[in-house]
């Protein structure tokens, strides 16, 4: 299992933080050390009383200049060396360097461990292969499931009896109508499975659906252990959109494992789709008329404009070159946006590898959504900090809880 993209290192931090990284003196908040005197709104008597006996956050909330100044000063202290390591005696420093050497050996073993795990994954991928082939044949209608397979599926099915009855009723209606009595395989299997993935489903447009209906299989292939990574292969039947029968995308890991002991995402290489004429789903042509001011003649201008499409997945974002980084020709906002796109692209590849391909039937039926929803409920990004300053009742409750906690602590000390 690979870990996420490693954060970029700050070039201005010379020494890592230690448990002793606490400034000897309090950070100046006035005009000392050549710092400009901040402009802070005057605090009234009521606010001053509240600041002395209550919640200081309310004072900061009403004085954004003071809040910003404090955040800037505190932020500048993060990662600053305390001088603790440099102050150690030579004998202790030598022992610290020895521990670093031991950690180096640990990292080597971690790397071997991850490579062996990768070999095990490849071994079991070979065991999964016949099952995926069997799945592909049933989806395509080349064969039918055996009675044992159907019985095993019914045993683990969590569909309610009422839903089963509804499904039977729909099947009977179709059979009686005669329109689709000869349905082959499982139509739109992969389109349905992909649309049930919360992120990929949002990427698929109505025009994309027409092309994805021709998707017959998604396969996974591991790369050589010397170049760790994996390849995703989307197999299509003949269609009116592109010439390719297989669209590929390859994800590469860095050769050395990351700090957490897992492989780290390095880059992705996409596929140049051979679109048929006027069928490129990732672009559209805008036609505009322009009039010459002098001759009053008009001309038609055609402009190719990129559009949102699932098939942009095969054109992964590319990080800037090292030369551009060294020369400082990369805008920080653009770099931050690129990092976000790379992270999303990496996560999509991992989801296809770890979730969609192994459990395609669960995404088709929607069962996988139950687990996806549960994971999202535990996501920290879903929770917002409550602002108690805007609610006097909530603030009063906090003060009472704080006072009660102090009283309980005092009673414990007396005991």
From TrEMBL:
GO terms for biological process: nucleosome assembly. Residues 160-176, 371-396 have a biased composition (Acidic residues). One of its GO terms (cellular component) is nucleus. Residues 1-15 have a biased composition (Basic and acidic residues). Residues 1-57, 143-178, 368-415 are annotated as: Disordered. Belongs to the nucleosome assembly protein (NAP) family. This is Nucleosome assembly protein. The lineage of its organism: Eukaryota, Fungi, Dikarya, Basidiomycota, Agaricomycotina.
């Amino acid at each position: 299992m690979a870990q996420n993209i490693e954060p970029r290192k700050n070039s201005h931090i010379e020494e890592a933080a230690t448990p002793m990284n606490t400034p000897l003196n309090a950070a100046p908040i006035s005009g000392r050390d050549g710092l400009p005197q901040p402009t802070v709104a005057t605090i009234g008597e009521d606010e001053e009383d509240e600041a002395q006996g209550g919640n200081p956050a309310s004072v900061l909330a009403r004085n954004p200049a003071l809040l910003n100044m404090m955040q800037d000063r505190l932020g500048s202290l993060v990662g600053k060396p305390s001088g603790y390591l440099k102050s150690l005696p030579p004998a202790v420093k030598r022992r610290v360097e020895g521990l670093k050497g031991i950690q180096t050996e640990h990292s080597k073993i971690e790397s071997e461990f991850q490579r062996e795990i990768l070999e095990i994954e490849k071994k079991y991928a070979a065991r999964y292969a016949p099952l995926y082939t069997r799945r592909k044949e049933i989806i395509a209608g080349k064969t039918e499931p055996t009675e044992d397979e159907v019985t095993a599926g019914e045993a683990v099915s969590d569909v309610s009896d009422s839903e089963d009855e509804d499904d039977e009723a729909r099947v009977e209606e179709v059979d009686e109508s005669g329109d689709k009595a000869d349905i082959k395989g499982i139509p739109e299997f992969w389109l349905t499975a992909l649309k049930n993935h919360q992120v990929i489903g949002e990427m698929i447009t109505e025009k994309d659906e027409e092309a994805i209906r021709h998707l017959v299989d998604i396969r996974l292939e591991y790369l050589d252990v010397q170049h760790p990574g994996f390849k995703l292969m989307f197999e299509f039947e003949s269609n009116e959109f592109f010439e390719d029968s297989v669209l590929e995308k390859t994800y590469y890991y860095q050769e050395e494992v990351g700090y957490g002991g897992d492989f780290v995402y390095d880059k992705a290489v996409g596929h140049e789709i051979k679109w048929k004429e006027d069928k490129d789903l990732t672009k559209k042509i805008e036609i505009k008329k322009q009039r010459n001011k002098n001759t009053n003649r008009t001309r038609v201008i055609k402009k190719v404009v990129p559009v949102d499409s699932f098939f942009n997945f095969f054109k992964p974002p590319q990080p800037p070159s090292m030369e551009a980084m060294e020369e400082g020709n990369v805008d920080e906002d653009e770099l931050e946006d690129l990092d976000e796109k790379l992270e999303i692209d990496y996560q999509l590849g991992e989801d296809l590898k770890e979730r969609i391909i192994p459990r395609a039937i669960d995404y088709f039926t929607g069962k996988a959504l139950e687990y996806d929803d549960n994971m999202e409920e535990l996501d920290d990004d879903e929770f917002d900090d409550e602002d108690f300053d805007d609610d006097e009742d909530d603030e009063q409750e906090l003060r009472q809880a704080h006072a009660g906690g102090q009283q309980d602590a005092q009673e414990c000390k007396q005991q």
